[in-house]
C-alpha cells in the first residue's frame, strides 16, 4: 500500500515568484510545489504540517554550473577517491543554498578524464548533498593564448570534431556542458554534433572575434564561460565574445560571471547586466580552497596558492578560480550593482536553469516544479534552511523549521 503523501504548508512567508517577492503561502507534496486552489477546492484537504516562517524569504535553490571543487576537494585532480570528494562537496554546498551543481573539470591529461568522468554520475540530491546535474568540462579544447590557469601541455585541438572529443573524454553520458574555443580547427563541427547530443556548448578561453562567436551560436552554442575572463578584451571595432551580449543572433545567450569581488569589477558587472540582463548567470568558479583558509591547494595538474582569499597559480599572480561560495557571490553581486533582490536571486537560480534547459522543473517556485528551495534572511541572505524535493536537507542552528 502506498504511504500517505505529506502535505506541507509554509505560512507567513515571502516567496519569489514571477520576478516578484510576494506574501503568499507555499505548499509542497511528493517533492513538488502544489497549487493551493486545487488542494482547497478540488481535494478539500488541509495541511498535514504547517511551518510558520516568521516573515522569512523562500527562494528557488541556487544552481552552480561552474564549480571546480571545495573543502579540499578538486574534481580534476582527486582521481583515487572521486565519490568521496563529490559527496563531501555536495553535502557542504547545502549550507550555501546550492541545491544543484555541475562538477567542473579543467584541462587535464586524457588518462584523468578516462579515470574520473565515468565516476561522476547525474545524481538526485537529498540529505546526502546537492543534486549533480552533470559534468562541466572546461578544456582542453581551448586557445593557448587564453589558457588562464590551464596547463599548456594538455591543451588540444578538436581537429576531427566529435571524434577527437570522444577520444579525449571517453563517454559523454553524464556531461552537460563543454567549454571550448570556437576558433579552433574542427570546433564548428564539434559544436553542431555536441548540440545534437543535448550537450550545452559554452565558448571561452578563446581569442575568437565576434563573427566567430556568432557562428558558434548559430551552430548551437548558448553559453559564454566566465565573461571577461580568458577572452579578448572588448574593442569597439571587434568586440569579441563580449559582443555576443548585444549580438543580433536570434537566440538568448547566457554567460557565466564571477562576482566574488575579485574577478570582475562592479562596473563590468553593471555593463554586462545592462547589455543582456536575461543571460547573466552567477557562478562561483570555486576551487578546492572554497570554505577553507589560505594555503596550498590544487586545480587539476597545477599547484594553487591562496593569499587573502585570492587563488593564484603558485609562484604567479594568475587567478585560477575563486574561493567564494555562490550565496556570497549573490550578495556581492546585489551590493555591487545595486540591483533588485529578485534579480540577484534569479541570476543564481532561474537563469542557470534556463541556460541548462531544465527550467521546466527547476529555478522557479511555480506549481508542478521540483520543491528545491531555500529559506533565507531577506536582508543578509543568510541561508537558514535548504530543501530538495520537499525534504529539509540542511538547517542552521536558529532556523525556524527546527520547531515546525
Model description:
With 404 residues, the chain is α/β, with parallel strands linked by helices. Helix content is 22%, strand content 25%. The strands form five sheets. Strands 8, 11, 12, 13, 14, 15, 16, 17 and 18 form a nine-stranded parallel sheet that branches. Strand 9 and strand 10 form a beta hairpin. It is globular. The model has no long low-confidence stretch (mean pLDDT 95).
Quick description:
The protein has helices at 36-42, 82-93, 110-116, 162-169, 187-196, 210-218, 266-275, 326-337, 341-346, 350-356, and strands at 8-11, 14-17, 20-23, 26-29, 32-34, 49-52, 57-60, 62-67, 69-70, 73-74, 98-106, 131-132, 135-138, 175-180, 200-203, 223-224, 254-257, 280-282, 295-299, 302-307, 310-313, 373-376, 383-388, 391-395. The chain has 404 residues and is α/β, with parallel strands linked by helices. Strands 8, 11, 12, 13, 14, 15, 16, 17 and 18 form a nine-stranded parallel sheet that branches.
Kindly list the characteristics that best describe this protein.
404 residues, alpha/beta, 10 helices, 24 strands, globular
Strand content: 25-35%
Poorly predicted ranges: none
Number of strands: 24
Helix/sheet category:
alpha/beta
Count of DSSP-assigned helices: 10
Portion of residues in helices?
10-25%
Largest sheet: 9 strands, parallel
Radius of gyration: 21 Å
For the terminal residues, how far apart are their CA atoms? 27 Å
Q: Looking at the structure, what is the overall shape?
A: globular
- Average pLDDT: 95
What order do the helices and strands come in, and which of them pair?
Layout lengths: L7 E4 L2 E4 L2 E4 L2 E4 L2 E3 L1 H7 L6 E4 L4 E4 L1 E6 L1 E2 L2 E2 L7 H12 L4 E9 L3 H7 L14 E2 L2 E4 L23 H8 L5 E6 L6 H10 L3 E4 L6 H9 L4 E2 L29 E4 L8 H10 L4 E3 L12 E5 L2 E6 L2 E4 L12 H12 L3 H6 L3 H7 L16 E4 L6 E6 L2 E5 L9
Parallel strand pairs: 1-6, 2-7, 8-11, 11-12, 11-13, 13-14, 14-15, 15-16, 16-17, 17-18
Antiparallel strand pairs: 1-4, 2-3, 4-5, 7-22, 9-10, 19-20, 20-21, 22-23, 23-24
Amino acid at each position: 500500500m502506498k504511504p500517505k503523501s505529506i502535505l506541507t504548508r509554509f505560512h507567513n512567508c515571502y516567496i519569489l515568484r514571477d520576478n516578484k517577492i510576494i506574501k503568499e503561502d507555499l505548499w509542497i507534496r511528493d517533492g513538488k510545489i502544489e497549487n493551493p486552489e486545487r488542494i482547497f477546492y478540488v481535494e478539500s484537504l488541509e495541511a498535514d504540517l504547517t511551518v510558520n516562517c516568521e516573515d522569512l524569504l523562500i527562494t528557488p535553490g541556487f544552481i552552480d554550473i561552474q564549480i571546480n571543487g571545495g573543502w579540499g576537494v578538486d574534481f580534476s585532480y582527486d582521481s583515487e577517491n572521486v565519490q568521496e570528494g563529490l559527496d563531501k562537496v555536495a553535502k557542504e554546498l547545502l549550507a550555501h543554498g546550492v541545491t544543484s551543481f555541475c562538477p567542473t573539470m579543467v584541462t587535464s591529461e586524457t588518462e584523468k578524464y578516462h579515470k574520473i568522468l565515468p565516476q561522476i554520475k547525474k545524481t538526485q540530491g537529498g540529505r546526502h548533498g546537492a543534486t549533480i546535474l552533470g559534468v562541466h568540462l572546461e578544456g582542453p579544447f581551448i586557445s593557448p593564448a587564453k589558457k588562464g590557469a590551464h596547463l599548456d601541455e594538455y591543451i588540444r585541438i578538436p581537429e576531427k570534431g566529435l571524434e577527437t572529443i570522444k577520444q579525449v573524454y571517453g563517454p559523454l553520458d553524464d556531461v552537460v556542458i563543454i567549454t571550448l574555443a570556437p576558433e579552433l580547427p574542427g570546433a564548428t563541427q564539434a559544436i553542431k554534433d555536441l548540440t545534437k547530443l543535448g550537450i550545452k556548448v559554452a565558448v571561452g578561453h578563446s581569442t575568437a572575434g565576434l563573427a566567430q562567436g556568432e557562428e558558434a551560436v548559430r551552430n548551437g552554442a548558448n553559453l559564454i564561460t566566465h565573461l571577461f575572463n580568458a577572452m579578448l578584451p572588448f574593442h569597439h571595432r571587434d568586440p569579441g565574445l563580449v559582443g555576443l551580449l548585444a549580438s543580433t543572433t536570434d537566440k538568448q545567450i547566457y554567460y557565466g560571471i564571477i562576482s566574488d569581488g575579485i574577478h570582475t569589477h562592479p562596473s563590468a558587472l553593471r555593463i554586462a547586466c545592462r547589455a543582456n540582463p536575461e543571460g547573466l548567470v552567477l557562478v562561483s568558479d570555486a576551487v578546492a580552497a572554497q570554505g577553507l583558509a589560505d594555503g596550498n591547494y590544487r586545480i587539476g595538474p597545477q599547484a594553487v596558492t591562496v593569499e587573502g582569499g585570492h587563488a593564484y597559480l603558485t609562484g604567479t599572480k594568475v587567478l585560477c578560480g575563486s574561493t567564494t561560495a555562490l550565496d556570497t557571490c549573490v550578495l556581492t553581486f546585489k551590493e555591487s550593482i545595486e540591483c533588485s533582490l529578485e534579480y540577484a536571486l534569479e541570476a543564481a537560480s532561474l537563469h542557470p536553469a534556463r541556460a541548462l534547459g531544465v527550467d521546466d522543473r527547476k529555478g522557479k517556485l511555480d506549481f508542478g516544479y521540483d520543491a528545491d528551495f531555500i529559506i533565507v534572511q531577506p536582508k543578509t541572505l543568510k541561508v537558514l534552511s535548504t530543501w530538495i524535493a520537499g525534504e529539509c536537507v540542511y538547517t542552521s542552528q536558529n532556523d525556524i523549521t527546527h520547531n515546525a
